[in-house]
Specification:
About 45% of the residues lie in helices and about 10% in strands. The chain is built from nine helices and six strands; from the N terminus they run βαααααβαβαβαββα. It has a six-stranded parallel β-sheet with strand order 3-2-1-4-5-6, sandwiched between helices. β2, α6 and β3 form a beta-alpha-beta unit. The chain is globular, with a radius of gyration of 16 Å.
Length: about 220
Amino acid sequence: MRYDLVVFDNDGVLVDSEPISNRLLAGYLTELGHPTSYEESLRDYMGSAMHRVHDIVLERTGRRLPEDFDDVFHGRVFAAFERELEPVPGAVGVLEKLAADGVAYCVASSGSHERIRVGHRKTGLDRFFDDGRIFSSQDVGKGKPAPDLFLYAAERMGVAPGRCVVVEDSPLGVEAAVAAGMDVYGFTAMTPASRLAGAGRLFGDMAELADLLAD
């Protein structure tokens, strides 16, 4: 194993939440008078913290989203998670292999701590992640593409950035990991490989990851 720490993005990498959350985000923005398709939501917001949604809408329209936007949106998302959310195929096997081999790993997500934990409880991934392995953009105040979250996770885990590899599925996340001085493996299950061009390696099946990390 060439790395001392594997840092996972959460949404779309560990839990198959991106189709759910972007469908609901597009619908809610459209409902509020900001017409947005599912494809546009993926393009503009996938992998980003909520403040980016507010910033982009304000920049494009000059109008602020309602003060309760985040609460309403997360309420809809969490309800949908309880009905629909599943782990990304292959994710459980990768985590089991890392744990069995004694390889350090953690999650560093643009999502809130509550969102991460709700998703992990629903999918059973909570058995792999105690509080010391979960990091959110809430912890640093500045989400991806800034490198702050990944650097914070590495510091808390006691590993130098150059000894970390990040597993990401969004262009913003890849940009953040590169800026943090970490290697990046780009997961292309939902994102065209061309949009993850900054990643050092690309793969489309999570079940392949354990072998790729061992190369």
